[in-house]
Fold CYP306A1.
Amino acid sequence: MHYCKYNSEYIPLLRYINILQRTGMPGPLGLPIIGHLHILNPEAPYLSLHAWTNLYGKVFKIRFGSVPCVVISDVDVLKKVFSQEESTGRAPLYLTHGIMQGNGLICSEGPTWQEQRIDQNLGTECGVEVCQLLEKKLSAEGGIIDPAEILGHCIGNAMNKLIFGITYKEDCKVWIWLQDLREKGIRMMGVSNVVNFLPWFRFFPYNVRNMRWIKMGQVESHLEYERVIREREIRLEEGEEPECITDFYLQEVQKRNKAGLNLNSFTRNQLYHLQADMFGAGTDTTVTSILWNLLILSSEGQNDLQKRIHDELDNGRQDQTQVSLLRAATLEVSRLRPVTPLGVPHGALASLQVGDWRVNKGTMLLPNHWSINRDPSVWKNPEKFDETRFLDPTVAFKIFPFQTGKRRCIGADPARDIIEGVLSHILKVYHVELEPDVDPWHDPRHGFTLEPQKFRVKFTKRVTTVKN
Ligand code: HEM
């Protein structure tokens, strides 16, 4: 779709219609049918919403095609809204309600979502494997490499262990195919984005082909999941203890069958979707977070910070009442480079209060983390990287990389463990240095997540500086 660079406020006729449209909540001028899609920057929608936050305030309305949306850029309003049961729906998009048909965890609502949202202890450890593979690649290719592939494999395997109780070898054909399928699926979901808001777009031949491809991919990956599920069922029948999400799910089904209870949403199809959701939601987000941290920590501007982190890793924390330097740095990275700058939108299941306004059932509720994280009334010099602001343990609660409230990310704890575990393993062993002439803040890519451009890092083995 053509993207109009100019804010429609400048066009007099449209401005007049805008005044007519303003019946309560503020917001930019929209057009019939497409709403605000024509003035939304498709490469960086968070920048359009940030500019509108400055113009219309911390709660404003827009329309994505036929979907009405309220954008929330206020910490307190967001916390209050997302703590309510009425806000735990998903936005009425073709992706969630059409393609996924409300299956799995990410796209489900109401009783199915409540039943499927079982918080398990999801702890995992993969820093050692990352370092082993880095070592292997460094000795084969020399000191300067792109770490993305190694991280994709190791974090993907950490998710495999967590969800399916298995890991794949790097060169396993099934694993390469599954990763490829996920990568292409994410790209297609991205290009098919507009289908979510303009349902008739899905009948265009290009989109028909994409949708068919996505559905085929689903069917094929579910066949592989079924193979793994059968293996897990045999293990459990032989009396082994449950050790992954699939096992816990199968155990719940078994319990219900034994007790003669209704299975409700605990179906095979639901299990496939849950497995895919956990894998999809957990892998890219975690890999991208680690990449942002590596990119920024290895840049010249953060040389001193890296030295201080090395010192803390070697000698321990000086002040136990403060947050560790590494954690403070990861929090500051996720403030300025949130992996999901616009989070994952919710949908209003019933009418509800958002700040000073009453919002109708069916409205999309969009958390604007990009603006929250650089709100000048909360953050001094918001555009400046300064990890020391997070040394105070209470400050962490002012950003929400995993969102907030009843539907908060189910993988927040393992994600944090993996990110800090992998980074501390790498930084204990290596000094990292970004390749020359790369600006770490330049031009992030916005797709499924906000990613850095491809970059390479020089890894140099370091001598530890343990003080007696
Ligand atoms: C840095 C890493 C991660 C980030 C930034 C992240 C971010 C998010 C966000 C913003 C949401 C939306 C929450 C909401 O709708 O209110 C979400 C949901 C979700 N995340 Fe994560 N996530 C990460 C890692 C993980 C991991 C490791 C897993 C799996 C082990 C995971 C599984 C999920 C699932 C299943 C949902 C859907 C929850 C629901 O709809 O009830 N995420 N995540």
Summary: The chain is about 45% helix and 10% strand. The CA atoms of residues 4 and 39 lie 5 Å apart.
